[in-house]
Amino acid sequence: MTRSRHTIATHLPIAVLVAAALTVTVMLGPAPAADATMPASRDTRSQVDATPAVAGAASADLPGYRSWVGRVTRSDLGPTWKPGCPVAPSQLREVGVRYVGFDGQAHEGSIIVHKRRVYSVRRIFQDLYHQQFPIRRMETMDFFRGNDDRSMAWDNTSGFNCRKVTGGTSWSRHSYGVAIDLNPRENPYVNGSTVLPWNTGDYVDRDRDRPGMLQPGSAAVRAFTSRDYDWGGAWRTLKDYQHFER
Questions:
Q1: Helices marked H in 81-206 — which ranges?
Q2: How far apart, in whole angstroms, are the C-alpha atoms of residue 202 and residue 68?
């Protein structure tokens, strides 16, 4: 059974959709400026052997939370997986979730994680949904052809991507499907003079608490840490505010 490929959501005017489609198609074009408007996300792909959805009540202004799970193949993963990666495609799952965007509306996206992390990931994003914690976009990394810099620049929340750690040679925890990067532009990676993504703007200043930021002790951070995820924002030698791993 073949899953449908990327399509553009239809909640925006036609002119915006055309511009978004062109932006997405030219994946090797320049990354967006710090104040660029994000293109519309594609609809979540149809599931293969999907497990039952998880639903929950939301506020009066939002539909209930929804989550679903599907298997993935090597073809689905595209360039994000290659021979030699530490996990096989059969060990991974695509988790679709309903999330609250920066516009305050409900959207749907998906993330690929290790099959042993599916339960916790569904519950984490359920918590974030009920908190109405805003998420910019959620595309699986094949949408960006495994280009982590481009995914971060587009403020994409992501999971599995078989790659080495930033500035190193060992496998990233993302290569195992056990790490999640949440709102990278609002929550940059900071290691000395290295700041990623390049268009994070003044979000390096953590004293100015703004929507989508992850702060120590916040409900959004607790949604992860209460389920035994480590937060990169609490690391000592560097700060990876977007990053959670378990």
A1: 118-131, 148-153
A2: 35
pTM: 0.79
List beta partners, residue 92: 114
In three state form, how does the secondary structure of 35-87 look? CCCCCCCECCCCCCCCEEEEEECCCCCCCCEEEEEEECCHHHHHHHCCCCCCC
Give residue 45's pLDDT.
Answer: 44
pLDDT, tens only, 7-60: 333 343 444 433 444 444 334 445 555 444 444 444 444 444 445 556 565 566
d(CA 69, CA 66): 11
Contact (Cβ atoms closer than 8 angstroms) between residue 62 and residue 75:
no
Cα pseudo-dihedral 32, 122, 44, 213, rounded to 10: -20
